[in-house]
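Why do we care about 3D structure at all? Because function follows from shape, and shape follows, mostly, from sequence. That is the central idea of this module. The next example makes it concrete: a single protein chain, its amino acid sequence, and then its structure expressed as tokens.
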Amino acid sequence: MSERTPPPKKPIAQRATPPPLPPEELASVAKRKSTRPSQELTQPRMSTPPTPAEQRAKAKQKPGAAKPAKAAAKGELAESKSGEVGVAAQRKRREGPVQLDQNLTIAKRIGKGRLGVVYAAVHEVLARRFAVKVVRRALAADEKTSRRLRHAVRETSIVDHPNVVALTDFGTLPDGRFYLTMEFVRGIQLSRVLERDGRFEVQRAVPLLIQLADALEAAHRLRVVHGDVKPSNVLLVEQTQGRELIKLHDFALVPVLSPAFEEKRPLAHLELVGSPDYLAPEQITGGHVDGRADIYAFGALAYRMLTGEPPFVGAPQEVAEGHRRLEPVPPSRRSGAHDVPADLDALLLRCLEKNPGDRFRTLDEVSLELASLMPQAAPSPFEEEVTGRWKIPPELEEEEEPLPESPARLRRLFYDTILELGEHIDEQGVASDDMVVEIEALRRIREEAAALAAQSELTENRFEDIRRELRERESALRYAVIDLNLAKSDQTQNARDLDQQISDLERSLAQLEKQRRERFAALNVELKQAKDGLKALEHQMAVHYRRLYAELDEVRTDVDTSESRQLFRRLERCRAALSARSQRGQG
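And the structure:
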């Protein structure tokens, strides 16, 4: 009976194999140990004998193989099963950063996705940080895919916009994998911010969406489509004075609309890009993909920002089916998003139209619509011309009530004060004939505008009523189709009969879709007429407000009541506040 070496006690074994240190601590540990004899770094302590597993491994080890060659430590990047880059299959973690080329040194991993791993790197000559994305080996193995990616990198590198993460360089590692060098951005993924905050208030979301729309439009002008717009591909950067900046990235691995592009099929079909929550219907079905797919994804992302959830939730297949078949609930109808105005509802729903032809043609149009929804984004021509001469003593300003923080409410207070002051002067009997004409015109136009706004709101509500009605009918039909398909797969009934029933249901669904489009088209005509009428009335009001403001300036010294002084002070404070916000880029 042979003797067995008794296993060491558990406490001793634990001391003999301490857990590895995190990468960020390795450099400092190595520095502290560098002054000790090298024997302490390579041999176990005498008080801690090696375990049997260590003894067997040592016996099998070939002479001279204890230390990896230095040539492998510098410039040789290995890929683990997870796609991460290590030094000589991660045997070099204790030897510090990896040299990517003669100037660029990889410092640490900062992110990971389906396409590869992202590292922070330092350029020795420029003394700047860059982000380096090392693409998965599988994407370089196929020659066709490799050619597509190379072309995409060349094409997308020309996208130059302050809201796009700049691509600065790309190359190939010795093992054939691609790496891309990009601008290093100190920001946080929008997806993480949304997970933390839930949803954005309209006042915060719209300026960011305008930036995102401008970034995508800049790419579309160069015939570059992103194809994978989603919160995790958007970085949020906080700037001075609390302002936020959007940075869109991952343009280099998406389809390119270029005459030289060899194959028009989108990379989504290679399973490289595309998140179900933000995919356009044409990407799901394999149809033609152009910039309007980005408009759809933009609408889905904006929906997520304003409501806290994407347009459709559920399993990936259910989400994909929702994008293809179902109408999203207007954002304002979702829980917690009741501050979303009707115009913003309509904008997002138009972005999310199933048919690309029914969406906005360009993101320039989207950006302009968003700017019109934010009063602080574009002052009216009337306000730009206002140069009132009324001065307020500082001691009186401190006595006034604080002005509204909301730019929209401040603007409304400004307009209301003009009309209120004109009516007060008219009551005092010192109003000119021209002033009376302007006052009457404003009263009439404001009443008409209020009626049109109410009509628009009713029309918007009818949209939701139709959606709800048709959605219930559609769900019943689709459940029936699912049941028949399940029965067919189980072969419990005659397959031919089942096919006929499924075909009949599909025709019913097609008729339902046709009915939906016809009813929506009629409502859209009605809604457009109301909105066009509102825009015309708003333009007329701006003209009359400008004229009345000039008339008030003429009679400033002719009326001196307590109420008139108070109204004049309020008017000047509103004007000054709007002017100041305009200069700061907030109004």
